[in-house]
Write a structure and sequence with these properties.
Helix content: 25-40%
Structural class: alpha+beta
CATH architecture of the largest domain: 3-Layer(aba) Sandwich
Number of helices: 10
Oligomer: single chain
Radius of gyration: 23 Å
Number of domains: 2
Shape: elongated
Order of helices and strands: HHEEEEEHEHEEEEHEEEHEHEHEEEHH
Strand order of the largest sheet: 1-2-6-3-7-16
Strand content: 25-35%
CATH superfamily of the largest domain: Zn peptidases
Distance between the termini: 35 Å
Largest sheet: 6 strands, mixed
């Protein structure tokens, strides 16, 4: 049976699983829902007949690790995340069929659909004669949407043992694959004061909001002085009532750049302004930039060849978004990180998947695995 015919036969099961998974809330901080998702994933991926399949815990958070043929001559890391950005009380909780090929639902593109592509691509690959030449490690984490603070170092360790990595994030909204990514860091800035009654004893209080406001005002001025800066103040909180002097205020800031030096520069600015206004700051997560290096370029060219053979258009460009591919690339692992489905509306109530892309991307991944494993020269060019 051809892979195309096989995938056509698997398609109804993929769609059924996607609907089931979309209806389960897997918000990054909903550990109960994520534990259910991990159980479902372990059961689903058991069809790959891994040599080992186990839950792993990093800093109190669980993930799923599967391995096969760890002594094979060629080793690939494949992975993705189960968590989404929608809390349990968010109105967007279930899938919704729209017109034609479009299915709306939380996480259908980012990235539950991609995990199904990974599952079926490897399931088919395990049936062909090339399979014994490939060893694989699959890791599904549950904190990617919050920067992988618990699983990041663990997946980087896994990356040290492989020749390359394939991740199943969705392609961009224009169906482009991602060639390079900006780096991203999140920061928490806090201001502390002294609470007091705003009418009776305001002189006994110390307002925590004013110093934070001054800090942010100076930061905004600095961005205008320096020029273009991908710096965003995303949230701000403080105080409890207008008749109380607030004793606490905080904000969260995101910074993105394709240059590692920019992070050092802006952290120097944070340090200077925090001393000036008496606030504190800390970096809560960091993903370094993912430049387009020669090894990744070779991988993209191989993907382009696969697309031409299958009649699937393959293009790529830079993305301002980050993912675990940034972490793997930082360790020198050649990484393709958008082998997942086509869709759009990520992180919104309009998130959707183009359902036919489940079949397209599964076929594309199968062909890429075949091409990488079948030709020694290809492997050496990427891994050397």
């Amino acid at each position: 049976m051809s892979p195309e015919d096989w995938i056509d036969g698997q398609y109804p099961e993929m769609v059924a699983n996607l609907k089931k998974w979309a209806n389960l809330n897997t918000y990054s901080h909903n550990l109960e829902g994520l534990d259910i998702a991990l159980k479902w994933a372990k059961e689903t991926f058991s069809s790959l007949n891994p040599d080992t399949s186990e839950y792993v815990e990093t800093n109190g958070r669980r993930g799923l690790l599967l391995r096969k043929r760890t002594t094979a001559p060629f080793q690939i890391y494949m992975g993705g995340h189960l968590d989404t950005v929608f809390p349990p009380d968010h109105p967007f909780q279930t899938w919704l069929k729209k017109e034609g090929d479009i299915l709306l639902g939380p996480g259908v593109s980012d990235m539950k659909g991609g995990l199904l592509v990974l599952w079926k691509a490897v399931e088919y690959f395990e049936t062909i004669s090339l399979a014994p030449s490939l060893g694989w490690t699959i890791f599904l984490n549950t904190d990617e949407e919050i920067g992988s603070p618990d699983s990041g170092k663990f997946l980087q360790k896994l990356g040290e043992r492989v020749d390359l990595a394939l991740l199943f994030e969705p392609t961009l909204v224009d169906d482009c694959f991602v060639s390079s990514r900006l780096g991203s860091a999140n920061y928490l800035v806090e201001s502390r004061g002294i609470a007091a009654h705003a009418g009776r004893e305001p002189h006994l209080g110390k307002n925590a909001i004013f110093p934070l406001a001054h800090f942010l005002s100076d930061l905004e001025k600095k961005t205008r002085e320096v020029g273009e800066a991908h710096l965003n103040v995303g949230t701000i909180e403080g105080g409890t009532a207008p008749n109380q002097v607030p004793d606490f205020a905080k904000c969260k800031i995101n910074l993105r750049s394709r240059e590692m030096e920019k992070f050092s520069f802006w952290e120097g600015v944070f340090h200077e302004l925090s001393k000036k206004w008496g606030v504190s700051w800390q970096r809560t997560s960091y993903r370094p930039p993912k430049p387009l290096d020669k090894k990744t370029e070779i991988l993209l060219e191989k993907l382009l060849e696969c697309g031409r053979e299958l009649g699937i258009k393959v293009r790529w460009k830079e993305s301002g978004g980050t993912c675990d591919g940034n972490l793997l690339a930082a360790k020198g692992v050649p990484t393709l990180d958008t082998l997942g489905v086509a869709g759009g509306g990520l992180h919104t109530e309009q998130e959707y998947i183009r359902l036919e892309s489940l079949k397209e991307r599964t076929m594309l991944t199968i062909r890429l695995l075949e091409k990488l494993v079948n030709v020694d020269e290809d492997r050496e060019n990427v891994a050397s």
